[in-house]
């Protein structure tokens, strides 16, 4: 449960209660219809929660796996080392992790890891490999390039973030799980934010289930849209996060476990540099650096839209922001990172609003999932009271 100091009335933080009620109604919709087993929503502004509610077979005490929304947390941990001067985005990864510099990967830079331009999107790594150092480094050494680093964008579901976690350990001299906990979660008062779940917290996690039926090749053809590529994010891989030993691993690209409130408040910290209690974590210039679009005109190879990537996060931009996980009514400055199955996490510096949305119903229908995300984000983006 969130710290009571982080809970406020909507009016006190400039949020319109009627618009917030529309958010609640939309979040409840698919739970009430039986599409999703549960959903948890948090909306924050001015460093505090204006809304935190859970619907369905869960409570406000329930934790959720947020999948790739974890990437923003891992990236923000890396930003701290950049801020301190202990890491540069221009460095070659092999100069930090020599075991990585095999099979042509010696040219990969730190920035390319954050931007998904590093060239090894499908490199295998089981979460439990992390705890066996020889196996971990052996995986890095075995990986091969699919294409020349820096030449294109292709989403790396987990591989590049494992390397960023290794870099954080080497440059900080601290365990990655402890670094995230000690430098981000605890200073911000986010008691339920975990990347690497302690065993005693397993009973609180909402079990993941698959929701609905997948679209067939014929469905995609009839709608005139390309069929998504097959990646490591399989149904079995998703369900593996119901296993305690997988939850315990710090899956840096997709295994964070927390509440929606932790997500929303984390993005408040990325807007303001720290928590509502006055504890500062990132400097303003660090956040501005991280939120700068670095991907140029690189496009998503599946959808064809510009990817608008900052340093481990996605920037909404002027056009096609709905294709990048934002609402049409978000400002171009909004930034964040969604997660598999429909997790939503973003902050908007223009309005000061942030969202965390979690569900344990991993939707098999990507069109319904996408529409839900845009619909909820649209409503949340407009909750700031006029004037």
Distance between the termini: 32 Å
Largest sheet: 6 strands, antiparallel
What are the secondary-structure elements, in order, as H or E? HEEEHHHHHHEHHHEHHEEEEEH
Number of strands: 10
Strand residue content = 5-15%
Strand line-up in the sheet with most strands? 2-1-9-8-7-6
Q: Structural class of the secondary structure composition?
A: alpha+beta
Instruction: Classify the helix fraction into a percent range.
Output: 25-40%
Rounded Rg: 19 Å
Average the pLDDT over all residues and give the rounded result. 95
Provide the low-confidence segments as ranges.
none
Number of helical regions? 13
The geometry reads as: globular
Structure write-up:
The chain is an alpha+beta fold. The protein contains 13 helices and ten strands. The strands form three sheets. It has a six-stranded antiparallel sheet with strand order 2-1-9-8-7-6, sandwiched between helices. Helix 1 runs antiparallel to helix 13, helix 2 packs parallel to helix 6 and helix 2 (about 70-85) packs across helix 7 (about 175-185). The model has no long low-confidence stretch (mean pLDDT about 95).
Write the layout of secondary structure elements.
Layout: H1 17-32, E1 38-45, E2 48-56, E3 64-65, H2 70-84, H3 93-96, H4 110-115, H5 133-142, H6 159-172, H7 176-185, E4 209-211, H8 217-223, H9 235-239, H10 244-248, E5 257-258, H11 260-272, H12 284-290, E6 314-315, E7 335-336, E8 344-348, E9 353-359, E10 361-363, H13 366-381
